[in-house]
Design a protein that fits this description.
- With 376 residues, the protein is α+β, with helices and mostly antiparallel strands.
- Helix content is 25%, strand content 38%.
- The protein has helices at residues 3-18, 69-74, 81-90, 189-192, 235-238, 299-325, 341-353, 359-373; strands at 52-53, 62-63, 94-107, 118-132, 135-144, 157-168, 172-178, 181-186, 196-201, 207-217, 222-226, 229-231, 246-256, 259-271, 277-294, 328-330, 334-335, 338-339.
- It has a 10-stranded antiparallel β-barrel with strand order 3-4-5-6-9-10-11-13-14-15. The chain has a 3-stranded antiparallel beta sheet with strand order 7-8-16, with no helix packed on it.
- A hairpin with a 5-residue loop joins strand 9 (196-201) and strand 10 (207-217).
- Helix 1 crosses helix 7, helix 6 (299-325) packs across helix 7 and helix 6 crosses helix 8.
- The two termini are 29 Å apart.
């Protein structure tokens, strides 16, 4: 591996963990840290309760003060319920500043000590990669510009982020079982009527979690609430925590005139070896605010989608084959101490650096990398 590619992969890892910045300088006095909290009540005056999260300093952004096109289309006259559902999902596409905020609110275990709150932010564009009548796929691409120590602005850092697939009246879902394994389950006919499933995928396009719910619409907002589902620990947790195994919770997506908000309510729980519940450790609340912005140059993300996106389409093909042809799926987090996303990101960068993309070669490479990380 060349030094350039190694730098790209290491940078990607750091970017996943540290994208964004605090609103205040991280060196501020601790008594100002409570300004960081998304929640209104003060939990403690201790300095070590300052939120963890992004440490880089992102550049200022300009918010779009007008109602965005997705909101306007959602509120056109004469739309059916199904058309409003589709419009609400498509309204999540576009340019955003995203704030990620999580806070433990209740502890259940003996000698429980609350974890630090988490806060970071980034700028990303949500692209529509598939738009079919009953299926919509949205790909999140982060494009971040950072303040340098010399007072300038860095070159853009581009990273493929998570993906969300929406399916109308889905008949099956992949349920997370713990230990990086999933199982396909049928959805009852009465439950799937009029509903949309949301399948969420990791940065390497492997499955993360899937849930089902129904959209509700009124003149002020549109909202979708999922059922309760298990999910793997996110990177913000498993990079620093090893005292629990899964998150169990639900989330709500709410579309408004300035963007959208994702709210989560999660229980952190440990499992027995057979996957059954052992104990709950704590409960957390989470809010991700997607506020539309203007005058941020997302062209590097567009370039990435147009070129490396061809390879990622082949990666999705391999995953879809596995999901369609199996009832269970298990993945090794690392092979030879290398995480699955790293060789995929590395090959995507080779595609960016190369000339014409060879889909046959890319598909074979994706299949080789993914199969190496599958577990019986």
């Amino acid at each position: 591996m060349t030094k350039k590619k190694l730098f790209i992969l290491v940078s990607a890892v750091l970017f996943i963990n540290q994208a964004g910045a605090y609103e205040k300088d991280v060196k501020d006095e601790c008594n100002r840290s409570q300004e960081q909290y998304i929640f209104s009540w003060a939990l403690s005056n201790a300095c070590d309760d300052k939120p963890r999260g992004g440490t880089s300093k992102g550049v200022e952004v300009k918010y779009d003060e007008k109602a965005h096109d997705g909101w306007l289309k959602l509120h056109q006259q004469g739309l059916t319920k199904f058309q409003k559902d589709r419009a609400a999902i498509l309204a999540m596409a576009g340019p955003y500043r995203v704030d990620f905020n999580f806070l433990e609110t209740v502890g259940f275990s003996e000698n429980y000590k609350r974890d630090k709150p988490y806060h970071s932010w980034g700028t990303e564009y949500v692209y529509v990669v598939v738009d079919e009548p009953e299926f919509i796929s949205l790909q999140h691409i982060m494009v971040m510009y950072f303040k340098t120590d010399e007072g300038g602005i860095s070159e853009p850092m581009v990273m493929k982020h998570w993906r969300q697939d929406w399916t109308y009246q889905d008949d099956t879902m992949w349920r997370y079982q713990g230990n990086n394994s999933w199982k396909k389950q049928s959805i009852d006919e009465d439950k799937r009527k009029g509903s949309w499933s949301q399948a969420v995928f990791q940065v390497d396009d492997s499955p993360r979690y899937e849930s089902i719910g129904k959209w509700q619409h009124n003149s002020s907002f549109s909202t979708w609430i999922s059922d309760t589902t298990q999910r793997p620990l996110p990177r913000r947790e498993y990079s620093v925590r090893d005292d629990y195994h899964v998150l169990e919770g639900f989330n709500r997506h709410t579309i408004n005139r300035f963007g959208w908000v994702q709210e989560e309510e999660n229980w952190k729980k440990t499992l027995n070896e057979d996957g059954t519940l052992k104990a709950y450790q704590s409960k957390e609340e989470g809010v991700g605010r997607y506020r539309r912005i203007v005058d941020t140059d997302f062209q590097p993300g567009i370039d990435y989608m147009e070129k490396a996106g061809l390879f990622w389409a082949d990666v999705r093909t391999v995953w879809n084959e596995l999901l369609n042809n199996n009832e269970t799926l298990a993945i090794n987090k690392k092979v030879d101490n290398v995480s699955l996303f790293m060789p995929l990101f590395g090959y995507a960068q080779e595609v960016m650096d190369g000339d014409k993309y060879d889909s046959e070669k890319g598909l074979a490479k994706a299949r080789e990398i993914i199969n190496k990380h599958l577990r019986d």
